[in-house]
Amino acid sequence: MSRRQYTIELPPAVGRRVDRAAKREKRNPSDVAIAALRLYFTIPTESATVTELRAIRRGEAAYRRGDYITLDEYFRSMGNRPRRTRKKVS
């Protein structure tokens, strides 16, 4: 398999995480980066539809006009409060 060589700069914190992962997995940092990039490229990306973009713009315009309610106002208008969590009964 042919390979291409890249030189990249990482923020110090990211570099430390790569080094720790490489040491933990007994691999070299390049292999960790390759695995991360493969994972990155397998995650599907979606674009908003025209209808969704239009709805987002309408919502942002309403927010700028002050045409919104808080979550507390919503719950009060519904006449019920969010339920408190309880411990599981076995």
Describe it.
This protein is mostly helical. The chain has 2 domains: 12-42, no CATH class; 46-80, no CATH class. The chain is 58% helix and 0% strand. The protein contains 4 helices and no strands.
Keywords:
90 residues, mainly alpha, 0% strand
Reconstruct the topology from this structure:
Layout: H1 12-25, H2 29-42, H3 50-65, H4 71-78
Helix pairs in contact: 1-2
- Work out the count of structural domains: 2
**Helix run count:** 4
**What is the number of beta strands?**
0
| Rg (C-alpha, Å) | 24 Å
Strand content: under 5%
Compute the average pLDDT: 90
Name the structural class.
Answer: mainly alpha
Residue share in helix: 55-70%
The poorly predicted ranges are none
How would you concisely characterize the structure shown here?
With 90 residues, the protein is mostly helical.
